[in-house]
Amino acid sequence: MARPAGPSLSADPRARARARQEPYLQGLVRALARWPLPVLHVLGGIIGWCIAQTPNRQRRNALINLALHRPDLGTRELIRLRNRSLSAFGRTYCEMGRLWLRPPADVLGLIRDVRGAELLRRDDGRGLIVLSPHLGAWELAGLYLAAQGPTTIFYKPQRRLDQLILEARRRSGAQLAPTTARGVRALVQGLAAGEYAGILPDQEPRADKGATFAPLFGLPALTMVLVNRLARKSGARVIFMFAERLPRARGYRIHCLPAPDGIDSDDDATAAAALNLGIERCIAVCPEQYLWPYRRFRRRPPGQGRVYIGSLRDYDAIERARRLLRAARSDADAR
């Protein structure tokens, strides 16, 4: 059902522009959903290659993040990894309509292998908290989780295609809980009933309340503390899960990884550090498939400089990341 346009919508030119774009975006997504997966991956690779060839902020931000993640790599290796990651970035968004709109059985049939499936068992009757970073085909990971049993997924409403995304994520029976106090209560209730709770753990929280800074790629990142609080309140275990995209459009591999020790600590800083360590371990499996253009370090601790600024040139972006890491190490040594 379409939402009525209130005064704020008519007064906001950006909201009006989004409303005009919505039918075209939906039409594009529905058209791409009919294309074969190999064609979508070729198209996505071409789009990613084009992004990599033209100076732009996404390209720069991806390179800064990668230089933070892999300070051991030289300049040329980082640029090559950035270019591969942008090709994967293009494939992620080109395949999304197919993952959203095709029958669930068809989409789940693309899964060729599940590693660590035993971690998904709920033999003790307790719920299970499943953390799925923005790695590989995260929409497929959510669909697979919901196919394993009753699932509540923590959901951040989107500015575009929100209704389409909601319908897609619900089609295998998942319940969607908004990122509000009401949504948290839905997660708690689901875990108490022995269900799965799906959470994207690598989004920057909207506010300082319910978040703390913890290390990620060597820099402090504002990190949610919802996971450890849910785990303590419910007694649920915590694992990580993601869907790796296989080469040549051969399908996907699901990975389930145990959470690091301390993720359920009553100390928020300890738990947040363990959560970010778990994200890093997932990324290490297929680093080129992570969402590197995302500005994960947009919010900074007081007194620390901004991350995503400066020249769009590759060498300048890498040097900025290296300066940030040196400053972070100097701060750590001073403490």
TrEMBL record:
Name of the protein this chain belongs to: Lipid A biosynthesis acyltransferase
PANTHER family assigned: LIPID A BIOSYNTHESIS LAUROYL ACYLTRANSFERASE, PHOSPHATIDYLINOSITOL MANNOSIDE ACYLTRANSFERASE
Keywords (A to Z) from UniProt: Acyltransferase, Cell inner membrane, Cell membrane, Membrane, Transferase
InterPro entries xref list: LipA_acyltrans (IPR004960)
Location(s), subcellular: Cell inner membrane
Pfam families in the cross-refs: Lip_A_acyltrans (PF03279)
Molecular function terms, GO-annotated: acyltransferase activity
